[in-house]
Amino acid sequence: xxxxxxxxxxxxxxxxxxxxxxxxxxxxxxxxxxxxxxxxxxxxxxxxxxxxxxxxxxxxxxxxxxxxxxxxxxxxxxxxxxxxxxxxxxxxxxxxxxxxxxxxxxxxxxxxxxxxxxxxxxxxxxxxxxxxxxxxxxxxxxxxxxxxxxxxxxxxxxxxxxxxxxxxxxxxxxxxxxxxx
Length: 181
Fold this sequence. Notes:
The chain is mainly alpha-helical. It has a single domain (7-176), classed as Orthogonal Bundle (Arp2/3 complex 21 kDa subunit ARPC3), CATH 1.10.1760.10. The protein is built from five helices and two strands, in the order ββααααα. The protein has helices at 44-55, 66-86, 94-106, 129-154, 164-167; strands spanning 15-17, 20-22. The radius of gyration is 16 Å and the shape is globular. The two termini are 30 Å apart.
């Protein structure tokens, strides 16, 4: 059974930096990301949250386009977020988890082409320093929005604890990789 791929691979005229797509997002956070034209349509963040649990069961993933490369980065980021929450001595409440993940979203992280990036064989480095800065700014904004939406889903049941149906995926590693070093 193949892994689930991004529906945004079929989008025409998608801007890329290196070979990573810069896709529109629905966001409340200021930044360089283009905004989705129709706020009722799903964006890459919604797609990532929907596909995370299914795709995290796969060790192999055939990249079919630039949107898949962004999907991989975001799935690995969710996995690291869940591990951060799991590593807390006591389960954080929703506000604490939001603060923890927002801080993690803006922490320094390797980009494609950097020495610490785990999937450099599948990604092209940004062609210039300006492009690398644009990619970093975009990914910070997307990571912040993804963190906020992830926390909403983790604590949707109202118990004040993260959902066990999400936290059980801390043991699974998508493509047997992690973004954190």
